[in-house]
Amino acid sequence: SRDNVKSHLKDLRDNHNVQTELTGTGMTSTEVGGNSELVGIIVAFVVLLITFGSVIAAGLPIISALIGLASGVGIISLLTYAFDIPNVTLTLAVMIGLAVGIDYALFILFRYRQVMKTETDYIKGIGLAIGTAGSAVVFAGVTVVIAVCGLSLVGIDFLAVMGFASAISVIFAVFSALTLLPALISIFHKRIKVNKLQSNFKKDIDTPWSKFITGNALAAVLLGLIILVAAAIPVSHMRLGIPDDGVKPADSTQKKAYDIISDKFGEGFNGQIPMLINVKDKKDDPQGLQQDLQSVYKDIKDKKNVDIVTPPQMSKDNDYALMVVIPKQGPNAESTNDLVHDLRDYHKDAQDKYGFKTEISGQSVINIDMSKKLNEAIPLFATVIVVLAFFLLMIVFRSILIPLKAVLGFVLSLMATLGFTTLVMQDGFMKGLFGIETTGPMLAFLPVITIGILFGLAMDYEVFLMSRIHEEYSKTGDNDYSIKVGLKESGPVIVAAALIMFSVFFAFVFQEDVMIKSMGMALAFGVLFDAFVVRMMLIPALTKLFGKGSWYLPAWLNRIIPRVDIEGHALEKYKTVESQESEAKDSKETYDTTFKVYPQGATNVSKHQDVHGQDDAHSIVLDDKTMALYQEVKQQSASSLFLYDALIDYQNKHQLNSKQQVTNIEQLNKNIEKLNQLLEKNLRNKS
């Protein structure tokens, strides 16, 4: 075993004063656990502490994530007894499981604190948080699982194993967030800080960022595009390959061996290309066989980019001959890739001239074959991911432009991610800052892994932001106002979640293994590009520019696609109705305890007492059409309570006082029409 070899070589070094270094695939090893995870957890805790302002609250998502991670890694470790699972796969599963585990718990805890600002029963608050944010977490988790399992479409076994292991890690992160976290909240609910004071939210929705986005939407779009396109430029010269020992840390035995071989023998000795020649048809003519083999030897030796060719060696049964081709440069050099193609082209010449069948192998050959297969698979894989994202978001938001903007934004952030990673890992930009000693080609399977994982994370942020904007727009019909509300309410948690993701992924950049380093780099900056540039800048700015068109869906399509409520809005409406019914128990009329509604032209408009007996209620005057719909809908108590929401939202938005009257309320009219349509549909279903 590798450990036995190391032990014997150590004995040689200690007792015989010789230098021994090891290289080759047998030396590849990635240790799971260590400083990377610890650094990521510490930074995540600091972000959570700033977000929640409480040590207990900051610790709950981390505890939930760690328990889920331990469960997932435990299952994966058990599977190693039945399947060959590389250590790099386990490290990737740890990286993803820790990041999404903290983020998912953050979303649920954040929603719990929002609910508890108006709720007194913490049990009900936990239920509402799980019913709303928990649904979004399930959606996000399922999306990530589908995406990473999609790696099996590529047709490379170890990528499929990576995907399935990551999926297990994500599944347990979701389970922990939905089961363990609520239990932890119930235990420590008294220690979780909740601001019970009701801020005048309607008056302070403007933040510097939301004002910039809505006031300078075109500039925001242009700025976002400039950042993403500039970062994506290096993709044009991205080279894919499998890292060789030349990019290992300088103090590693693999790097030392690579450098000694390159210096004393030639760099090409690190990328030897064995050529196997099938000579079965000529083994009965030994003299002719030797002449033809010498001709093959000369043909290969004369080829460009060849340094040395070993003489043909016959197998014991004389069925095969073996030559080793030593290229002039290392396994990932462009010239070596050209040589591999030349040797493959020679297969036909050898068969036509000598009747030999030739095959080649080696790391350079594997690099080319894997890169070719991945390049062929990436378009299909990316298309499946993009189409899946489009239809999922179209169903969720019932819109054409919302999913279109989302998937285009994802493509831009993906290209920017791969471009920036190429700039650092291949071109060496700021390599010292990231602990990179030697540059080389990009990890061949990095693009597909990045597509799969970032897709799930991007859709998570998209849903969290746009669902809040959509919810507010459905109430007010005010596009700018809805964008500001979405950025104010969802922006902070998206920023916190993205910073946590970044800290966890970026901590792995400083691991020695170049595969883990590359994946950490791509995922860390992928989250930054997608969360901050796309979701927090491009998407809201484009929503502002497209206005009401953002929410357009053809009527025929609206009828046939299913309705999905991943944010639990129906549950929140139920909560609203329940609380309103409770508040109205002591009143004879649900509406008139808070609003007095009059038809247009009424002369007896007056104020009245609210549920607390105070003379400060509000009078609203409706046009004839709106009044007729209002009277019809009011006959149904549940629907009328939803209309009650619309009246309150309108009053809050416009800060109405007790003596103001509003005529021809366009958006209220639309809300009533929507409610009336729902009522008619319900009546038809009952009949």
Quick structural gist:
By secondary structure, the chain is mainly alpha-helical. Among the domains are: 35-197, Multidrug efflux transporter AcrB transmembrane fold; 273-361, 2-Layer Sandwich (Alpha-Beta Plaits), CATH 3.30.70; 569-686, no CATH class.
Features:
mainly alpha; five-stranded antiparallel β-sheet; 6% strand; Mycobact_MmpL; coiled coil; Putative transporter; MMPL_dom
Largest sheet: 5 strands, antiparallel
Structural class per helix/strand content?
mainly alpha
At the first level of CATH, what is the class of the domain at 35-197? Answer: Mainly Alpha
CATH architecture of the domain at 35-197: Up-down Bundle
Q: Uncertain spans, ≥5 residues at pLDDT below 50?
A: 197-203, 576-620, 635-646, 653-665
Strand residue percentage: 5-15%
**Number of beta strands:** 9
**SSE arrangement, N to C:** HHHHHHHHEHEHEEEHEHHEHHHHHEEHHH
Helix amount: 55-70%
CATH topology of the domain at 35-197: Multidrug efflux transporter AcrB transmembrane fold
What do the pLDDT scores average to? 79
How many DSSP H or I helices?
21
Compute the CA-based radius of gyration.
32 Å
CATH superfamily of the domain at 35-197: Multidrug efflux transporter AcrB transmembrane domain
The coarse overall form would be elongated
Q: Span from first to last CA?
A: 76 Å
